[in-house]
Amino acid sequence: MLTLYNTLSKTKEEFKPLNPGKVSMYVCGPTVYDRIHLGNIRSYTTPDILRRYLEYSGYEVRQIKNITDVGHLTADDIAQGDSGEDKIEKKALREKKTPAEIADFYEEYFHATEKAMNILPAHYFPRATSHVPQMIRIISTLIEKGFAYEINGNVFFDVTKFADYGKLSGNTLEDLQVGARLEEHPDKKNPWDFALWLKAPKEHLLRWDSPWSVGYPGWHIECSAMSTEYLGDTMDIHTGGEDNIFPHHEAEIAQTECATGAKFVNYWVHTRHLKVDGAKMSKSKNNFYVLEDIRDKGYSPMELRLLLLSAHHRTQLNFTWKAMDQAKANLISINNFYQRLSNSTGTGNAILNIADYKRSFEAAMDDDLNTPKALSVIFQLIKDGNTALDGNGLANPEETKKLLETSMKVFGLTLETPAEIPAEITSLAEERKAARFNKDFQKSDELRQAIDKLGYIVEDIKDNNFIIKKK
Ligand code: AMP
Ligand code: ZN
User: Fold this and answer.
1) Does ligand 1 come within 6 angstroms of the Cβ of 271?
2) pTM higher than 0.85, yes or no?
């Protein structure tokens, strides 16, 4: 039984979908004005693991991930995020390109990164700029119902009208007033009201007709428009990075629930930040790494993925190159074991109790997707399997291999395809093992060269054992 920590209730809850066997999931996607960094990748890896585990558990998952190509302003760390310049427009002006060219380029980059990271593509990637009519519809409903007001062509959500405002983040309006350090829009009635629609100044490039002004949408409204369009008024799961909790997701709840009258999201799953030197990895701090940095240093996307899985998504993770080294070594162990299982003839007498390992793996994943614990189960399997292979051999390599494959599929870690090792090569390697045992190192070297000439590499491991790989 899967349990998920729900940011809304602040407890781990048993997961029960709205419709039996089906799960709807919305992932707050990238703002496409720059290359996505490792922190963003972390926030997309969690919902990918969640989706993979739900699919493994027999659910049919529908996952929507939006592309933010309008409305996300530069001052998103200040108050309600409705001041500053549009991030995409700013980049377009600097690079003398159109906003659409900027968005296309970085969206492409985002998809390529997700593919390299083996993140399953969402079933649909709606773009904010293609959903302005839906946003206008929700804003009109909010005005009609008295939750929003228009002044000078700008429309704001009135936070004092929604009694539940703050239920996700735990912020109360009283606390917010005290702590207010807002760059206030002069048209707002209350400092914490947030923009649904803003009138465009003459020079603003992204602009649409609306009943209130020629303008552009606020940042938060897009996710309400796109999620309800594709998943209905109520969905099972909504994910994002922890910085999305406030104000973005708090605003999404307020405006959607006031417009539809229904509960917006049953389970809120947030990934805590990836940090560098103790600070949040972010574009604005310019302390970020992208996937190319990983590759340039000689690491692979799968090693990065393994590093991300080695921490629970609800703990902050500090990125270090030392941790990448560890991930590299761990991935080699996994692949070596896979190769050894494939070479094994199953003639040994040690039997691994696969059902037990499987149960422990599932128990860890059921416990709020505890990937570090689930990984430790697999590393125990590898350790016990290697011990058996080093000794008298493993009686059930096929069954072991199957569990390794299914668990790696849940983790989204692509295994290296094991090489088919011809019997001739195996017997040369056995001969070499005997030579080494007898300390006949000249013969052992000759045999290594013979194996090498035939296109294979023999690697020595513990207890005078070996692994054969294809060159
Ligand atoms: P953005 O492109 O800024 O809209 O961010 C896309 C997603 O990445 C959001 O869900 C953010 O919460 C998330 N995110 C941004 N920085 C980090 C980080 N350092 N660690 C984890 N998630 C992050
Ligand atoms: Zn969003």
Assistant:
1) yes
2) yes
